[in-house]
Every structure is written in structure tokens, then in C-alpha cells.
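Look over this today:
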Amino acid sequence: MDNATRYLRPTGFDPIMNKIANLLPKLGISVAGSRLLAVRGRKSGEWRTAMVNVLTGADGARYLVAPRGHTQWVRNLRVAGEGELRLGRRAENFTATEVADAAKVPLLRLYLEKWGWEVGKFFEGVDKNASDEQLAAIAPGFPVFRLA
């Protein structure tokens, strides 16, 4: 699998844990800044949801990082260009712009500093202490979106 198509499918207990994790934001419970991402399906047009961690970058902007790679929510967001971040009954609309690979290094490092304990297994041995070169090498496999 190359970085341009990298996708780690949920396995084992992951689907069960994902259902529980997706339930928490629906109930208004945020774990370390988590939100329920809602994006219109690129084929069906129906809302699709996934739990995400919203990263605030050093520039004050907010970002979404896809630790599993080029997932369905990533593909849908690329087509839709917009979505909602939900927590309980509140929904915040946003537009999204994909971040170029060259600009991802500091964002991936910050993401790993904040959520490495949760998503580190998806980074296949790369952690917050990785060199800029190591992070740049994996950047194409980790889509990042800037929210506005």
C-alpha cells in the first residue's frame, strides 16, 4: 500500500469501539476535544458520521487529521468541501481545505503530541519525536484538512 491510498480498515474490536466512541459526542460528551464529524456522502448525499479529534494548530486554525488514512470520511469531505462538527444537540458548520503534504509536518507532530496515546498505533512506529524527514515521508498517507 502506498501513501497516496493508505487506509487502515477497522479490525477486531475496532468497529465496536468506534460505535461507542461515536455515541459519546451524540450524548454531548467530548473526550479530549472529540467531535462527531458529519459529511454528506459523495454518492448517496446522506449524512455520514465519524468521531474525530479537532486539532488547533500553532496558527490558531483548526484542523482534522485522518490517522487511518484515506478513509470514507476523507473521500466524502474532499467532494463535499463542507460538513458539521457535532456535540450533543449543537452542530457547527464548516468548510474544509486540504493541506498540502509539505505543510503537514508540524501539524502531524502536534497531533501526535496531543493524541498519540489514542492514535499512535495508526502511525506505524512514527511518534511525536520523529524527525521532520520521517514525518514528511509519511505525510501523504495522512490527509489533513483546515477548517473555516
The helical segments are 14-26, 72-80, 105-119, 132-138.
